[in-house]
Sequence to fold (335 residues):
Amino acid sequence: MVKKILFFILFFLLSVNVSYAIEPKILDYNKENKTIKVEIEGKEYSFDVPIEDVEMLHATSLQGNISKKEYAKGPATTTLGSRLFSIPTDSLLPEKGFGYDFTHRFAQAIDNSTNHDLYGLDGFAYTGIGLYYGITNNLEAHVFRSSLTDASEFGIKFRMFKEAKKWGEGAPFGLTLSSGFQNDNIQNSIDPYVQAIFSRVIIPGWLKVYLVPTWAVRTSTIGNLGSKSASFFTFSDPKHRGFIRNRGTFALPIGAALQIVPNRLSLFGEYTPVLGGYREADNAWAFGLQILSRLETHVWTLGVSNVPYTTFGQFITGGPSNNFHFGFNLTARIR
Fold:
């Protein structure tokens, strides 16, 4: 009986202590480090405060109800990298993010090769490497260097808006603006380009398409038979057009990615019709596979194309022929 009385007294005292515990007092909030310091019953404690990116939040009422703004998502392979195969995408690095891509285009055509030289894989290849940096979540800068014509490219991408996940809750498509310039060993001039990257998710998580109207200045030097770039190919302009130094190109690249294995493998295809200005012998095209790494930090793009050029200002001119050439890209996001 005494034990029961003592138990109830102890329980009562503990309940009173909890009921009348001193309310925690906020001492300091560090906005930069995202930490908060509080005092509880005379003792100080410091806690990390998880804060979501402001862009992903929106207030739904004055009472402070907050929910995430949802955007449309295409195949997982399209979330990394600046290009599908040749055409640019609307994928951008986050703020202070860093990434790179490596391009490889084999010069020898598959149909002009045999199994003795692995259908062109033993031959010479044009390589390119690019570095990318996220200035903000919506602004990205890059530099790119191609061994073909020793072209150096500098550019930026700015995301105007993303496609909303649901119809009527935001933009029906995504729009990203891309612009920059390149310099090569042909005429040593600053040759600008500008692009509008429209994107649309047709089947969420499975199919995404791109439309990229592009204008580039002084592209006709690529096809000048006296230029270094033309000497790489045994072809001549079938229309026997004269060389015009300042001639540019306006093209309408179209691309699509279709997921076939969730979060791992996608098919891609692209076609770039030239609508005005200089064009090589045939319009540019490419198709192949995209493979996403298990950690979703790297994408391998294996493809076949008729275009050896990889800078955004050069590939739109098309290819010297319709021959099939192997090529691949490796894209990585470091952070």
About this structure: The longest strand covers residues 191-203. Residues 149 and 185 are 6 Å apart (CA to CA).
